[in-house]
Amino acid sequence: MKQIMKNLMQWVLAATLICGTSVFTSCSSDNDDNPVPEPGANSIWTTTH
Question: CB under 8 Å to 40, separation ≥6 — which residues?
Fold first, then answer.
């Protein structure tokens, strides 16, 4: 029984570390107060006529 609890605690620790690192690395820097997109930069309707 003691071996099962030790093994379970190791799995819990591993899962916590994996989930914890994904939380901290999921977002890039978010320092922009009010970003303004460039006009026509991402438009699929832009024509070259």
Answer: 46
Instruction: Quote the CA–CA distance of 49 and 47 in Å, as a whole number.
Output: 6
User: The dihedral of CA 37, 38, 44, 45: what is its sign?
Assistant: positive
Residue 19 banded pLDDT, cuts 50, 70, 90: confident
pLDDT in tens, 22-41: 776 655 565 656 666 666 65
**Contact (CB, 8 A) for 46 and 40:** yes
Q: In the prediction, which pLDDT does 11 show?
A: 96
What sign does the CA torsion over 32, 37, 42, 43 have?
A: positive
CB of 26 closer than 8 Å to CB of 32: no
